[in-house]
Structures are given as structure tokens and as C-alpha cells.
């Protein structure tokens, strides 16, 4: 299966170094090895492997290597300075790809040693759009809601196999990655927070309420949420506000990269699948076209809320409400559209017999609409 980032990364490898980040087991190594087939003398080096680590430290790969792949190199002390040297002294025909998960994304954001030398891509789970050539969009959305979008559990087609994979995956994350970000005595609280969040998908988070449940401070809750975001377990969507600082202070909503982790009914699972699909769409536009797009939600002081808002240049261009089977037009969507009639308003419904429009609100098949996103 050719993943959606194959072509843009292949093109950018001729221009700069490419840094690819994303959750563990999302397919980064698989994609790197697919790209290897495009080159004559490639070299794949995983810093976790002792022999490869020695090659990385001594830079003793063959001189005629035309494609260098560094996996998990961020675990090496001074990795950015080393990469800078490799990039600046490489032969003209040598392409460089660097892959990694949580720590690479965190360290990439600090320091200037790689400035101007790379393009960054974020790798997301499978989506209806990416699967539309393999199965009907409706079937793809059903499977994504049941199994999540990580390749191994999704391709298994089995809920029991997906559950076995998920149990092992999160055990490994706790043992290997969370320990890198926190102290061992904090792991229990982080795991409890993760369990609480599984029941709060799609709802504005109260840091105070979570702090009371966990018997820790609200600031500690915020720190733990940052860790879970850095590990690509959850992502937060904040309410739209033109004043960014005010938006950051308001309650965010939480979603999971893996819909299989969500505890809730079919509607909640669908909302999570739509959230990660929209995040992937926006991330793809940002990484490949440099657009200034963002994903938010809308909420008034009176509690009227619309699930998602796609913004461009700090301006809402599209409002999206998600329903599992209810095709009656959302009153909240109508409320916001009455205030800003120039914004595109869409209601996505999974179990929908006929698409239709009511007063400038498009009621669309969720699977069909999601299949037409950019990624």
C-alpha cells in the first residue's frame, strides 16, 4: 500500500533533508523502505541497532550512498549538530530522510542548528481519503470507527486482534516513552489521566475537575496532557477566538489519534474519526503547501457549540457538525450561520440516505465528504 506522503516526500528529497515524525507504528519505517526502492545505493540506519549506531557515530557508510535514512537518531547526543554536518558536506546527489516519534518532534522545535535545511512532514493514521482506492468510503469509515486508523490493527480486520495490538502498544509506550518525559512515580497518574480522557472525548476539558479526580494540581494536569500530546496519543482542539491568548485559556476538547481507544457510543467514535481526518487534512496542507490553516471548535457563553471549524489566516472558512444518524439540521449550526452567513456550513451524517441542503447548510454523507479531503 502506497502511503499518502510518498510522492511529496520523494519530490522534496531532491531539495532538502526531510524530517518525518508521527506516532510509533504508524508506518514511518515502512514508508522509508518504500522510498529506498527509488535509489541505487541506499543505506538505512536505525540508531537502536548496535551495528547501525556504530556506523552513525563514525559516519562510515559507503561514499556512494545516494539515500541515507536515519531512524531514531534523536537518541544520539548532539544529533542535530551531527545531521547539520552530514547535510552540509553530503554529495550533491545524496538524499537524507530522518524519521522518529515523540522525542524527535520535541527536540526539533528547539535550537537553530537545522534551520533552513529541512522540510518537516507529520504522518497520520489511515483515513477514508487514503483508503478510498481500496474499499468503498462507507465501509472504510465503519472500519475506522471500529478498529482505528493505525495500519496493523486496521488491516487485521479483527476487533480482537486490534485489542491485542492496542494493549501491547500502550504498554510499550508507557515503558519506553513516558519514562523519557517524566519520573517513574508519575506514570501511575499519567495512566489514570489517560483512562479518564477516554470517557471525555469531544467534551470541553476541565483541568480543575481532572486535578480533583487525580489528586494533583491543575498545572500538573496540563503538563501531563503535553506529554500525552508529545507521544501522539491525544491531541487538543481549542475554541476559535481571534485573540489567540484568550483561546488558549478556554477549555480545549480532547481527541485520540487512535479511535480504538475511545470509550463511547457510535456517535462519539465517529466524531473522533472525523477529528483525526480533519487534523490530517490540515497537517497535509500545512506541510505540503505552507497554508496557514488550523482546526478549532465553536462555542458561545450560552453553551451553543459546533464540533469543528476550519480556519485560514485566522478566519473561519468552514463549520462542521457531526451526527451519526440524525439528518435534522443542527440548531447550533443554524445559530452560528445566522451570525456569519458567508461561512460554509456542513453537517456530516454517517447513516444518511440522501444528501440535501437546508438554508445554506449542506447535509452530507460523512464517508463521501471525508473521502474528498486532501489526505
Layout of strands and helices, then pairs:
Elements: H1 6-12, E1 17-21, H2 28-36, E2 42-46, H3 50-58, E3 67-71, H4 79-89, E4 95-100, H5 102-108, E5 118-122, H6 128-131, H7 137-147, H8 151-156, H9 159-181, H10 187-198, H11 207-214, H12 218-230, E6 234-237, H13 244-249, E7 253-256, H14 266-289, E8 293-299, E9 305-312, E10 315-323, H15 331-339, E11 344-349, E12 356-358, E13 361-365, H16 366-371
Parallel strand pairs: 1-4, 1-5, 2-3, 3-4, 10-11, 11-13
Antiparallel strand pairs: 6-7, 8-9, 9-10, 12-13
Helix pairs in contact: 7-14, 11-12
Alpha carbon gap, first and last residue? 15 Å
* SS-based class: alpha/beta
Largest sheet: 6 strands, mixed
The percent range for strand residues is: 15-25%
- Mean pLDDT, all residues: 91
Number of helices: 16
Q: What is the H-and-E element order? A: HEHEHEHEHEHHHHHHHEHEHEEEHEEEH
- How many beta-strand segments? 13
Amino acid at each position: 500500500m502506497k502511503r499518502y506522503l510518498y510522492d511529496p516526500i520523494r519530490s522534496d528529497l531532491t531539495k532538502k533533508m526531510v524530517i518525518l515524525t508521527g506516532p510509533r507504528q504508524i508506518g514511518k519505517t515502512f514508508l522509508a523502505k518504500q522510498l529506498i526502492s527509488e535509489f541505487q545505493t541506499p543505506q538505512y540506519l536505525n540508531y537502536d541497532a548496535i551495528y547501525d549506531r556504530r556506523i552513525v557515530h563514525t559516519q562510515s557508510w559507503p561514499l556512494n550512498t545516494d539515500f541515507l535514512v536515519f531512524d531514531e537518531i534523536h537518541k544520539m547526543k548532539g544529533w542535530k549538530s551531527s545531521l547539520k554536518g552530514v547535510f552540509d558536506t553530503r554529495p550533491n546527489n545524496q538524499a537524507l530522510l530522518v524519521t522518529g516519534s515523540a522525542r524527535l518532534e520535541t527536540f526539533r522545535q528547539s535550537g537553530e542548528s537545522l534551520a533552513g535545511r529541512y522540510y518537516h512532514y507529520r504522518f497520520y493514521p489511515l483515513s477514508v481519503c487514503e483508503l478510498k482506492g481500496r474499499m468503498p468510503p462507507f465501509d472504510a469509515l465503519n472500519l475506522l470507527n471500529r478498529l482505528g486508523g493505525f495500519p496493523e490493527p486496521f488491516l487485521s480486520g479483527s476487533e480482537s486482534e486490534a485489542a491485542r495490538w492496542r494493549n501491547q502498544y500502550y504498554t510499550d509506550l508507557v515503558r519506553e516513552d513516558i519514562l523519557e518525559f517524566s519520573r517513574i512515580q508519575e506514570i501511575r497518574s499519567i495512566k489514570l489521566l489517560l483512562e479518564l480522557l477516554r470517557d471525555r472525548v469531544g467534551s470541553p476539558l476541565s483541568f480543575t475537575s481532572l486535578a480533583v479526580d487525580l489528586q494533583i494540581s491543575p498545572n500538573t494536569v496540563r503538563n501531563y496532557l503535553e506529554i500525552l500530546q508529545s507521544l501522539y496519543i491525544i491531541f487538543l482542539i481549542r475554541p476559535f477566538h481571534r485573540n489567540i491568548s484568550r483561546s488558549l485559556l478556554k477549555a480545549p476538547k480532547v481527541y485520540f489519534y487512535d479511535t480504538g481507544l475511545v470509550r463511547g457510543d457510535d456517535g462519539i467514535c465517529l466524531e473522533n474519526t472525523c477529528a483525526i481526518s480533519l487534523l490530517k487534512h490540515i497537517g497535509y496542507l500545512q506541510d505540503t503547501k505552507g497554508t496557514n490553516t488550523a482546526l478549532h471548535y465553536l462555542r458561545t457563553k450560552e453553551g451553543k457549540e459546533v464540533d469543528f471549524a476550519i480556519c485560514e489566516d485566522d478566519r473561519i472558512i468552514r463549520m462542521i457538525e457531526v451526527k451519526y444518524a440524525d439528518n435534522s439540521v443542527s440548531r447550533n449550526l443554524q445559530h452560528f450561520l445566522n451570525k456569519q452567513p458567508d461561512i460554509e456550513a456542513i453537517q456530516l451524517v454517517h447513516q444518511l440516505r440522501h444528501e440535501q441542503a437546508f438554508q445554506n447548510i449542506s447535509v452530507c454523507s460523512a464517508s463521501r465528504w471525508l473521502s474528498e479531503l486532501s489526505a
